[in-house]
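Structure ticket #2291
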Amino acid sequence: MQLTYLWRHGRMANLDDPVRFTELVQMRKLFDRDPRMVVLSDKIAAKAAAADLLGAEWTVPTLWQGDVLPPASPLSEPAMLKARHGCNQYRAIRTAPTRKEWAGLRKLADKWTAQPYGFWLDEWCYRDVPRGLLAEKMIGGDTLPVDYKIYVFGGVATHVQVHQDRAGDHRWILHDRDYRQLVPSNAEGPKRPRSLNAMLEAAETLARGFSFARVDFYELDRTPLFGEFCFYPGSGLDPFAADWVDEELGRLWLGSL
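Resolution: structure written out below.
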């Protein structure tokens, strides 16, 4: 863990007296065994939890779910195929796949489900999530929708990280809860989403009881949609654009313990 942290941040993590957000993520990976994180890291169970607390209208419709993809595609409309038990395991299916394309997707999905996710980065909470797949209704048209990732400390939403073009020139901008741009300060990003206040309130509802959780949303036609939970953003290995951000988020996390 220390070698990986050194490689990504150019310094060792202070695990004796952690103060940075990225260091606290390492501590969570090492020591936090809250069983709720396992449930909410399961994309299928997380959608059920969001629907229960917020209403079914907050969730993207599930078109199919199962342990393995069937020999023929069960999808009759554009969909996003995902692994239920991990991150960054997805494929956009925009048109009806050919037999050859579907065979390729089946092989890829088999690789996703061949083993638990997160082992090599010590991301404990994914270990016991049931391995499987789901396909959701495609939203956002020809491009992947903007991701609004809301940081919640002690039940209070404090920051909104906006991710764009995840399948291409992936970039992100960090805002405070009032959508004032923090870093990068000179980047151009999307305007404040119309449903941001609803997203902030929903994130606080869903993350209640955790010292820290990130809750992700999309916006479609001014309507907010739940995405997923995240308990190890970037596995604590993605540097922020400025050290002071890592330190500020660390202070918020420590203050919520």
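Closing remark: The chain has seven helices and ten strands.
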